[in-house]
Specification:
heterodimer; A: 250 residues; alpha/beta; Rossmann fold; 7-stranded parallel sheet; 43% helix; B: 35 residues; mainly alpha; elongated; NAD(P)-bd_dom_sf (chain A); SDR family NAD(P)-dependent oxidoreductase (chain A); Sc_DH/Rdtase_CS (chain A)
Chain lengths: 250, 35
């Protein structure tokens, strides 16, 4: 398929994991891709894996001015698709969870996502473009010991649906993907860094994937980004699409 | 128009690319349920 020939696509979080796979996928389908991340070395690695040379834009999601400058630079010459994939994670018993860490997670996962959407929407109005955000299964249920992350992703779901309402009449679609467990460097980091304190692991593991091989690969999630950004999804807006190997089925 | 929409859903969910999707409800409603 070559669904994005002549389209400009901004992918944040493109240095690794889902973002990297998504950048590769859009380039495979003919897009002119702008890849962005705080990890400049990772961006170079991603660029080497892409079928077409991307535009590389380092930025810092902790800085809203940086997030919005990224969009305005990426939109030079037009912007059709924004994939908000940058994110971070932190977990631990709530009684000891640092408020500073809570705010850091909210800034990267939520505030920066809104800042990018806000800057992108005027450009997307011109092209009748689309935004695909990264929520999570943590946007659809509470997760013990993961309050900040879950709150940040619930907020992404709310941003997605609210913007879909505001911009539907202007021809801009806004959706979000809710991945379950994905085999990424961030997931590996979570497993390798077990926080101190009392943790009931039965609570942590209560929503394991139901499929035999239910852990998603980054490329699985990338395929959903491509679908939601494509014309095939032209009637989809304000939707949360779950790809989780059946984690939330029950 | 409804048939067309169903075809569009089928295109993704029957594809190999959706091999990790099960138990999910995908909405294609032009934003009806956004709020």
């Amino acid at each position: 398929m070559n669904r994005f020939e002549g389209k400009k696509v901004l992918v944040t979080g493109a240095a690794s994991g889902i973002g990297q796979a998504t950048a590769i996928r859009f380039a495979e389908e003919g897009a002119n891709v702008v890849i962005a991340d705080v990890n400049e070395a990772g961006l170079q690695t991603t660029a080497e894996l892409m079928a077409q040379a991307p535009i590389i834009k380092p930025y810092n999601a902790l800085d809203n001015d940086s997030s919005q400058a990224l969009v305005n630079e990426a939109a030079e010459g037009g912007l059709d698709v924004v994939c908000n994939i940058s994110g971070t994670f932190g977990w631990g018993p709530s009684e000891n969870f640092s408020l500073g860490e809570f705010e850091r997670i909210m800034q990267i996962n939520t505030t920066s996502v809104f800042a990018i959407c806000q800057a992108a929407l005027p450009h997307l109005e011109k092209t009748k473009g689309t935004i695909v955000n990264t929520a999570s299964t943590a946007a659809l249920q509470g997760i013990a010991y993961t309050i900040a992350y879950s709150a940040s992703k619930h907020a992404v779901a709310a941003i997605t649906k609210g913007l879909a309402l505001e911009y539907g009449a202007k021809g801009v679609r806004v959706n979000a993907i809710c991945p379950g467990h994905v085999d990424t460097p961030m997931a590996a980091m979570i497993q390798e860094n077990i926080p101190e304190g009392n943790i009931d692991f039965d609570l942590v593991m209560r929503n394991a994937p139901k499929l035999v091989d239910g852990t998603c690969q980054p490329s699985d999630i990338a395929s959903l980004f491509a679908y939601l950004a494509s014309q095939e999804a032209s009637k989809v807006t304000g939707s949360l699409f779950t790809m989780d190997g059946g984690q939330l089925a029950g | 128009m409804k048939i067309l929409r169903l075809h569009r859903v089928e295109y993704f969910v029957n594809d190999e690319e959706a091999s990790k999707v099960t138990g999910s409800l995908f909405t294609m409603d032009g934003g009806q349920l956004a709020g």
